[in-house]
Amino acid sequence: MADIIQLLPDNIANQIAAGEVIQRPASAVKELLENAADAGATEVKLIITDAGKALIQVIDNGKGMSETDARMAFERHATSKIRNIEDLFRIKTMGFRGEALASIAAVAQVELKTRRTEDELGSYIEIENSQVLKQEACACAVGTSISMKNLFFNVPARRNFLKSNAAEMRHIMDEFIRVAMAFPAVFFSLNSNGQEVFHLEAGSLKQRIVQILGTPYNARLVSVNEETDYMNIYGFVGKPETARKTRGDQYFFVNNRFIKSAYLNHAVNNAFDEMIAKDSFPSYVLYIDLDPSQIDINVHPTKQEIKFEDEKIIYAFVQAAVKHALAQFSIAPSLDFTLNPEIQGLDAVSKPFTTDKKNAATSSNLFKTFSQKNQAHFIEGNDRSELKHWKEFYTPPTPDGGVETAQIPDTEHRIQKHQTLHVLPDTTLLQLHKTYIIASTNSGFLLVHQQLAHERILYERYSLAPHGQQMPTQKSLFPVTLEMAVTDAALLTELLPDLQTIGYQVEPFGNNSFVIQGIPADILAGNEKHSIELLLEQFKHFSSDIKFSRREKLVRCMARQQAIKAGQSLGQKEMLTLAEDLFTCSSPNVTPTGSPTYLEFKEDYLDRMFGR
Ligand code: ADP
Ligand code: MG
Questions:
Q1: Which ligand is nearest to the CA of 37?
Q2: What is the Cα–Cα distance from 192 to 198, expressed in whole angstroms?
Q3: Is residue 539 part of a domain?
Q4: Shared-domain flag, residues 172 and 249
Q5: Which partner for 444 in 99, 332, 562, 602 could form a disulfide, CB atoms 3.0-4.6 Å apart?
Q6: What is the Å distance from ligand 1's center to 308 Cα?
Q7: Which residues does 194 contact at the CB level (< 8 Å), separation at least 6?
Q8: How many domains does the structure of the chain reveal?
Q9: What is the pTM of this model?
Q10: Is 484 domain-assigned?
């Protein structure tokens, strides 16, 4: 019998090895971006066609390769990053296994152009199926451009395993984001099928995070920063209000390498403790730096899992650092949800209202400013003392009380019926300061706040929707596409069914984009996009408030958003409609958040005021 064991030919061995490192287009993207970062590039461009199935190209301005190195780079176990086993525990680079380019060359058609500053000419190499097809000198920019076409062209079984373009593109974006977050000082762009998906200018860590997670995060990040001899941790956690129902924006980097760790994730969750609802997930982007000898990154071919020398210390440290950061900010008080993010971001505003800090905080000047009744950003105190004060002021001192009092816009009085109150039909309405409407009634006059009144009207209209009545939709003649940040896209998807009931027709379009097919009948066409963005923005702002259902929040946001604003001139007809609509509401006298919508001045009260 003949011997039967044979050595595998190189290209087959490489293909098999490639299976570990390159599972899908996104894995190649990760390896190529990391190589660019390792080469010291300050500018890295990623170009994708057909979710990486047709083309993945990475262009960097890093240090480039010599002619020989360019050829060597594609050999298996060829690396410039380690020389002996000790180096493995001093790793500062992203790569070190020397497998990526060999793997890529085994399963795709690869073209490399590379030049070092000191070389006049660069090198061009064409390679596929691990075979060099062409190698020649070429003129090219300093740095490296590597493009891989038709991934898995020679391994049809693998190619067939690839998911839809949308799914593969999502993986690519995930990898792109992870590398971009690790190198904020490097410019990154991502272009997919000719469209620029990301354009991330070099900047600070915070800028990079906000560029990626979206501007709403700007005022909602709490900085984490602790240093010890053993390890440092820095980065940001989202304020409790950014917590999501879906595990979205959670990023851990160890020595600048994105890692997945359920264990460390648990440490962060624990630090958030009671601050967020049980079933929601905090957002965070955290970086741990420690001596490379304390970790083993070589436990996983794509290096996404690592082993710590002492896991318990890391856990305790992460938890303590996050707790400390949160303690400095505490839970935001229950602010009026329109409060603008800049103001809410101020320490003094976001600090009050935890049990231990309440007293100190409520005595702060800034807090007082925000809790004054005449401020737009009025914080509702628990005892509603401001409203009580207001009541005293407007309630005329009559012995028999009740009947003669002004309508007290207080939620406790909501049930009160208002049929008796109606605006006289044939009087002229007067608009004051483009904000107030003065309307005569049978017994005096009303001072109606146009915006607050309209908010009440819309609130009741939208609230009706769940009871079987869908709000009327106007179909868009030219459907508008909406491109969203990854996280916003997830939130929007979650809200779609509810949005539908209030008149929005929005359909997912893959790749975090959506098409707006229709909008509620009372939204100005041309404003579709803005109105949805605003809605999401407000919703997020509001989303830590667990006492309301998702629908209730959405309805409140919609009403707030769509209400005509103070400062808008209104015609007679509009004012009349507004007044009539208001008094068909079941609780016309308050907004959903409890502000008065109008003040009533009764004739006899006025008389008394004038000493009659
Ligand atoms: P590793 O990154 O693990 O060393 P790779 O197969 O990814 O292995 O790359 C092999 C070698 O090719 C690297 O060690 C590096 O010297 C060189 N190389 C790869 N990509 C680039 C690049 N974009 N710029 C400069 N050198 C590169
Ligand atoms: Mg590499």
A1: 1
A2: 9
A3: yes
A4: no
A5: 602
A6: 26
A7: none
A8: 4
A9: 0.58
A10: yes
